[in-house]
């Protein structure tokens, strides 16, 4: 399948964050009007964190937002290094999204139990409205790492031997992440120059395995493009 990559370049990470914030709110408005809810998959990382902080105070029907996660580390439920704690501190604790609409990955239970639980949590999702993803310096996205073999038909993977600590995690699969109306990659910083170059050259990286029917939109700052 040939996926169309749309590259959107901005001078700074702050400009990337601001534009993605606008796009999220536009998508939320459209999804709520057309389908009655907005199903959003959150990413970890510093630029997504800025986006979440900027969403606080936005005019939107928060009661219709449904929040999911692309991946999570197997850490205690209140650990500051969890994506869920970052998202809660930046956004979720400050807006009126019902707790029942926030689907946290229960990785404090360990990878096996957490993956089983999250497969059940997303079983009723026909399609996400938007998936937010980042990219690591090795071309990984969510917790899909180079060299790791995953069962292609799984919706949620248990992840062991992560090259970045902690070693145990869970992640939505490439297939699940691609089941979305819109997929945004948020790529900022000079450390991303090499994987961006490889991605454009068609190197087999985890970021390239996310293949939504509508293609992907990559929001990138000048520092990440040589």
Topology, element by element:
Elements: E1 5-10, H1 13-35, E2 38-42, H2 46-55, E3 65-69, E4 71-73, H3 83-90, H4 111-121, E5 128-133, E6 156-159, E7 169-172, H5 174-177, E8 180-187, H6 193-200, E9 216-221
Parallel strand pairs: 1-9, 2-3, 2-5, 5-8, 8-9
Antiparallel strand pairs: 4-7, 6-7
Helix pairs in contact: 1-2
Task: Kindly describe this structure.
The relative contact order is 0.19. With 226 residues, the protein is an alpha/beta fold. The longest helix has 23 residues, at 13-35. The mean pLDDT is 96. Helix 1 crosses helix 2 (46-55). It has helices at residues 13-35, 46-55, 83-90, 111-121, 174-177, 193-200; strands at residues 5-10, 38-42, 65-69, 71-73, 128-133, 156-159, 169-172, 180-187, 216-221. The chain has 6 helices and 9 strands.
Shape: globular
Oligomer: single chain
Which regions are unreliable across 5 or more consecutive residues at pLDDT < 50? none
Structural classification:
alpha/beta
Largest sheet: 6 strands, parallel
CATH architecture descriptor of the domain at 5-123: 3-Layer(aba) Sandwich
How do the SSEs run, as a string of H and E? Answer: EHEHEEHHEEEHEHE
Strand order of the largest sheet: 1-9-8-5-2-3
- Tally of individual helices: 6
Number of strands: 9
* Annotated CATH topology of the domain at 5-123: Rossmann fold
Distance between the termini: 28 Å
**What portion of residues belong to β-strands?**
15-25%
The mean pLDDT is 96
How helical, in percent, are the residues? 25-40%
Evaluate the radius of gyration: 16 Å
């Amino acid at each position: 399948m040939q996926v169309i990559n749309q590259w959107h370049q901005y001078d700074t990470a702050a400009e990337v964050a601001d534009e993605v914030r606008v796009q999220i709110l536009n998508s939320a408005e459209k999804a709520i009007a057309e389908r009655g809810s907005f199903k959003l998959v959150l990413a970890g990382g510093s630029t997504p964190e800025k986006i979440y902080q900027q969403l606080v105070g936005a005019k939107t029907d928060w009661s219709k937002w449904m929040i999911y996660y692309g991946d999570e580390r197997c850490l205690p439920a209140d650990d500051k290094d969890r994506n869920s704690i970052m998202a809660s501190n930046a956004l979720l604790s400050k807006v009126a999204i019902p707790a029942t609409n926030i689907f946290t990955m229960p990785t404090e239970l360990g990878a096996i139990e957490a993956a089983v639980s999250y497969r059940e949590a997303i079983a009723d999702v026909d399609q996400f409205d938007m998936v937010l993803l980042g990219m690591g310096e090795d071309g990984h996205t969510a917790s899909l790492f180079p060299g790791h073999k995953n069962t292609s038909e799984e919706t949620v993977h248990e992840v062991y031997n992560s090259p970045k600590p902690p070693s145990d995690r869970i992640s939505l699969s490439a297939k699940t992440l691609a089941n979305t109306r819109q997929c945004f990659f948020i790529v900022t910083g000079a450390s991303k120059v090499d994987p961006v170059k490889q991605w454009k050259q068609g190197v087999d990286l985890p970021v390239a395995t996310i293949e939504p029917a509508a293609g992907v939109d990559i929001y990138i700052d000048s520092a990440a493009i040589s």
